[in-house]
Amino acid sequence: MKKLSIVRFRNDHATILDIEKNKGVYTFLPPIELDELTQLSTHLVNRTKILIFFSPLDTIEESIALPSVIKNEATILKALSVKLHDERLINEPLVLNKVDAIIDPLGESIQHHYKGLYEREIYDAISPLTQWEHIDAITSEVYALFSISEEIFRDKSYLSVYTQEDRNLIVAVNKGTLLFSRVGELQSTDEIERVMEQISDINRTVAYAHQQYREVAFEFIAISGNIADGEMATIQLQAITGLRVCTLAPTLMVKGLELSTAQNYILDIGMLYLPESMNFLPTRVKAIKEFDFGTKIVFSIALLVMVLGVYFSFSAYTEYQAGRDDYHNTRAQLEQTLQNTVTFDNDQLQKAIALLEVSTEVDHHFLDSMIVFDDLFSLIHPSQSAYSHTPEGGVLTLSFSKKCTTLKELYLFEKTFKQKIATLKPQLASITPLYKINYDTLTFEATVTYGITQQTATDPQQGDNG
Predict the structure, then answer these.
(1) H or E, element range at 421
(2) With 80 as the cut, is the pLDDT of residue 284 above it?
């Protein structure tokens, strides 16, 4: 939920309206009335977005035609200042906003249209505030009335009137363009006479609008303020001016306003829809806002750096602590290993060295050569295996047995087996196969010995029965 505050200045009096915005809906909180402007900053101490409008003595509207090749804004404003000085004798600094720039049909020149307020009047209005960095908008009552009217009546031609006890505030609008504005001061103190004076002042303004802007077809008059509560005033205005009269309904635009007092906050509601071209922030306020924004960015970066520093410091400390724990654990394990290790004295060490010197290298065990049988084992696995030591070394005996179902199967298996044995003989000179094949029962049996035996020494060819 976003919160903002609107400050309205009028005759050394200020009204503060706190507003909440939730999902695009504005809710007005009860107003705070201040008779002492010195109290203003105290009431706004926690506000972060402040909108201000006041009643300046004058608003400036001026246009200047310059060659279309001139694009630089500073050059255009300088030329406009010279024109205001020469033609209207305005020497004071102004806060100017460009409204539009219209190129002539030939494209040779551009008509630059500006609106402005006197810088001195703006500073005088906001001088009771100390929170300039939180000011988001500054404008006049005229532009606040124009903003709410345009929010309701887009692309229409009309006059919008906001009435108070002592004056009428009137703007004339043609399809989004503010044609003119005026403030009509009221002298009557009697309520009935004051209404008649208001109607008469509005009628004179309508007549002026028709006379000065004959090309504009005004469609209606929109009334608001205290005159909007009287039905008779609406009927009389319509009869006198010949234009339709409608009433602004602020309670349909925002929440939180009492029906009986809602018309008092028409201008405040208009501040919520103020276009940027009617926001007159002076140079010093912009500078303070930019400085405040930059300070927040620097603070955010510093905070981020600090958080990252703390994080990495903590990570480094955690890694250090883990390493320290590993060191202590390893040291404890080494100390325990040293305590459990049997140590030799010098005589025992000398005996061990002598024993190593006279020891011979362990012969390679012939079982390491079993890998040569891998191809044979892929055909059939041994049904039995035995290993026995002999004075000459050792003998490995492998027994194979297979039951076939056909004579052809037996024949092919016998042939394949003997071929694999034949392949092994060049690698294993002492290999000896013994076969027992029964063609009646279709059984194949073979015994393969590998090693040095008396039999293989005398008859290395024995055993190929087949």
Answers:
(1) helix 407-424
(2) yes
Q: Which of 201, 195, 210 is nearest to 243 (CA)?
A: 210
How big is the chain, counted in residues?
Answer: 466
Q: What share of the chain has pLDDT > 70, as a percent?
A: 91
Angle at 380 between CA 379 and CA 384, to 5 degrees: 155
Residues 6+ apart with CB under 8 A from 157: 173, 174, 175, 216, 217, 218, 219
Tell me the mean pLDDT in the region 443-459.
Answer: 69
Q: Per residue in 26-44, pLDDT tens?
A: 999 998 888 888 778 778 8
Beta strands in 186-285 (DSSP E): 220-225, 244-247
Q: Is the pLDDT of residue 168 over 50?
A: yes
Buried b (16+ CB within 10 A) or exposed e, 32-45: bebeeeeebeeebe
- Report the alpha-carbon angle 323-324-330, nearest 5: 85
Q: Is 462 helix (H, G, I), strand (E, B) or coil?
A: coil
How far apart are alpha carbons 278 and 51 in whole angstroms? Answer: 12
Which domains can be identified in the chain, with CATH numbers?
2-281 (3.30.420.40), 367-458 (3.30.980)
Our measurement of the distance from residue 391's CA atom to the centroid of its chain's CA atoms, rounded to an integer in Å, reads 86
Under DSSP, the state recorded for 255 is B
The pTM score is 0.60
**Contact residues for 70 (Cβ-Cβ < 8 A; gap 6+):** 76, 79, 110
- Exposed, middle or buried, 337 (CB in 10 Å: 0-12/13-18/19+)? exposed
Element (H, E) at 114: strand 109-118
Residue 283 has pLDDT above 60, yes or no: yes
User: Phi, psi (5° rounding) for residue 399?
Assistant: -110, 135
Please give the full DSSP string across 267-279, using - where no structure is assigned: HHHHHTT--GGG-
Average model confidence (pLDDT) for the chain? Answer: 84
The confidence score (pLDDT) of residue 412 equals 93
Cα 171 to Cα 142: distance, rounded to the nearest angstrom: 7
pLDDT band at 418 (very low <50, low <70, confident <90, very high): very high
